[in-house]
Amino acid sequence: MTATTTLKHGDVPHAFTGIGDQNQLNPIFARAGESTDFPLNALPPSESLPETAYQIVHDEAMLDGNSRLNLATFVGTWMDPFANKIYAESADKNMVDKDEYPQTAAIETRCWKMMAGLWHAPDPENAIGTSTIGSSEACMLAGLALKRRWQLARRAAGKPADKPNLILSSAVQVCWEKFCNYWDVEARYVPISLEHKVLDGHDLESYVDENTIGVVAIMGVTYTGMYEPVEKISRVLDKIEESTGLDIPIHVDGASGGMIAPFLQPDLIWDFRLERVASISTSAHKYGLVYPGLGWVIWRTVDDLPSELVFDVTYLGGHMPSFALNFSRPGAQVLLQYYLFLRLGFDGYYRVQKASQDVAVYLASEIGRMPAFELWNDGTDIPVFAWQLAKGHTDKWNLYHLSERLRLKGWLIPAYPMPDDLTDIVVQRIVVRNGLSRNLAESLVVDIAEAAAYLDALDSPMPTEGLVTSFTH
């Protein structure tokens, strides 16, 4: 028989008396050392229990915003439980160590060949590509290949090769500014305007010359989500070549649109179907649906990547070709990309991206109906759109105030000025990612309408001191 204790009214079980092991009272927050402040900017002098360190890190991370309500970032914030399991099982894999992890290296090759086919490379088996930490590294590798190809051609012709330039939209992502700065390439920015909201080939002949290494076309401009018309840009460059002899290649920055257009706009000509497109990059941790950070860059053919840029690296007893700015980097995200390709296939990616686009179009339509706002675009390219205050609507508040008001409800929706020549226009932008449901979107519409009504009802203008741009690439 098991002995039992009968509790009388007023008796307190032993575990709640505070007698004995204090962990029985509260296994974490009453533990010795839990109430001690850890130094914020110095290494603690001694060790702590793993549970204590975990709880402190966990609690600090709670102070971040809710990632599901973060409509500022393009970066994915959700994967399914099986992906999380793969992530946990492969977090120790180093992508650069292809001799130690040959299967992960083989899977990396499978992934970029799948994408070469998705982007209509003339011969995916004869294309060349690599994974990267993100699309910024992918863009820089593509830019380096453009520069080196130009230099080799100039030197072979006996011409100087010391003043390269690159043609960019003024709304280009900051990684291209970094590329030009770091690698001594002159950035020639074609300004966007109300008449030309993207780089569309207008006046391009005024910017290119014999020192132009290439033109960057963006599939999904960061500021607004709009596609730049790659086919139109290519036709303009064809005409320039006919009149000047300049053969200028295109790199397509498909950070976002590279994993949207093949599924939602399959008839749009923007990829390797255009012979002038030498390389394409994308960000797998955006609409590739993988956790950060992973990017891809693919060249049309092996010949489009100068062999001088590829190193044969000896590492841990093995030899491997390497073209990267980083050395050691995670291999887990490559496996996650492969998992998604197998899990979703073409139809699955279509359904996921279409669901995001449907929510973006719904939100744009509802916001566009509100008298306070004018849409910049409608979310029918990538699932991203922007809007500005309607002219003459109010002098009491601006979109920075609306952004702050929505933050009170947990929504992170940035407000920021447009680029050069349009800096007097402030817009707000919503990025719809996998995980923003129609139900959440309907709640957001209500919150935006209520916030605008609250601001409209003010008796006097809101203060403008301390307002900050919250632009997120």
From TrEMBL:
Cofactors, names only = pyridoxal 5'-phosphate
**GO terms for cellular component:** cytosol
One family from Pfam that matches here is: Pyridoxal_deC
Q: Which GO terms describe its biological process?
A: L-glutamate catabolic process
Question: Which reactions appear under catalytic activity for this entry?
Answer: L-glutamate + H(+) = 4-aminobutanoate + CO2
Q: What class of enzyme is it?
A: lyase
Q: What EC number is given for this enzyme?
A: 4.1.1.15
InterPro entries, sorted = Glutamate_decarboxylase, PyrdxlP-dep_de-COase, PyrdxlP-dep_Trfase, PyrdxlP-dep_Trfase_major
GO MF, one annotated term: pyridoxal phosphate binding
Task: Tell me yes or no: is Acetylation among this UniProt entry's keywords.
Answer: no
Keyword Flavoprotein appears in the UniProt entry: no
The entry's keywords: Decarboxylase, Lyase, Pyridoxal phosphate
**Modification N6-(pyridoxal phosphate)lysine occurs at:** K286
Q: Which PANTHER family match?
A: GLUTAMATE DECARBOXYLASE (PTHR43321)
Of which family is this protein a member? Belongs to the group II decarboxylase family.
Q: Which named protein is this? A: Glutamate decarboxylase
